[in-house]
Amino acid sequence: MREQVTRRAGGLCEYCRSPAAYASDPFSVEHIHPRSSGGSSLLSNLALSCQGCNGRKYTATTAIDPITGEPAPLFHPRRDRWSTHFIWNEDYTLVIGLTTTGRATATKLQLNRPGLVNLRALLRSVGAHPPSEPLDSDLE
User: Fold this and answer.
1) pTM beyond 0.85, yes or no
2) In sequence order, what are the residues at sequence separation of 6 or more whose Cβ sits closer than 8 angstroms to the Cβ of residue 44?
3) Domain boundaries defined on the chain
């Protein structure tokens, strides 16, 4: 199952879009809807996640949108298109939330952690960033 999740994600964290090939720690297969809240271990509830995003998300499914101050659902990699909720800044180093879900997720998971920003800049300098958009077939 881990192999299927990794292949479906293209070897990228499904939240911050960082590549597993350059990570210092192995990525996790994360339960989008946590098992502690009744989430299943079916492929439709699993996402590939770097340790930084996985640890910050933990069992959360919602977070506060920093603009509205209201709770919003976190990005759901099986139901949501990344490009609907996020864009890259001009030099492709920062993830910018476009929607309440995007902003809440970017804040909760700290999608612009310094190490990620540095990695994106380095990968961009060698033509290996930004990653391509996931295919519609990757959505459940």
Assistant:
1) yes
2) 78, 140
3) 2-126
Rounded Cα gap, residues 37 and 58, in angstroms:
12
- The number of CA neighbours under 13 Å toward the Cβ of 108 is 25
Residues 6 or more apart whose Cβ sits within 8 Å of residue 138: 8, 9
User: Block means of pLDDT (10 residues each) for the chain, length 140 residues?
Assistant: 96 97 96 96 98 97 98 97 97 98 98 98 96 67
Dihedral sign of CA atoms 78, 43, 23, 113 in order: positive
